[in-house]
Amino acid sequence: TDLKSRYSDDRIVIVDSSALLVSADALLLSQYTAGVLLVVEMEKTTPKDIKKVMELLKDAKILGTVMNKAK
User: Fold this and answer.
1) In angstroms, rounded to a whole number, what is the distance separating the alpha carbons of residues 68 and 71?
2) 11 with 3: CB under 8 angstroms?
3) Least C-beta-crowded within 10 Å: which of 30, 46, 49, 58?
4) Who's near 37: CB < 8 A, 6+ residues apart?
5) Dihedral, 24, 30, 36, 40 alpha carbons, nearest 10
């Protein structure tokens, strides 16, 4: 793709998108990335939401999880 040809292997490009459960953008973008970093909001994202996201991203490589708004 254009991004792969533009940047060498020693660079990391981070693409931010809207929440997966509100928009299909993240799911579409995950098909064109080397991996997905899952961001969950502390005290708002439910285990049910995380399970649904993991099912939607079953074909994506999950690189890790970030807890957002943690105290």
Assistant:
1) 9
2) no
3) 58
4) 14, 63, 64, 65, 66
5) 0
Mean of pLDDT over the chain: 89
Exposure on the CB side of residue 22, measured as CA atoms within 13 A: 4
Place of tokens 């020693």: 10
Tell me the HSE value of 37 on the side-chain side, using a 13 A CA sphere. Answer: 9
**Helix (H/G/I), strand (E/B), else coil: 40:** strand
Name which residue leads in pLDDT, 47 or 14.
47
Contact present, 42 and 70 (Cβ < 8 Å) = yes
Nearest to 20 by CA among 57, 47, 63: 57
Distance between CA atoms of residues 34 and 63, nearest Å: 9
Is the pLDDT at 45 greater than 70? The verdict is yes
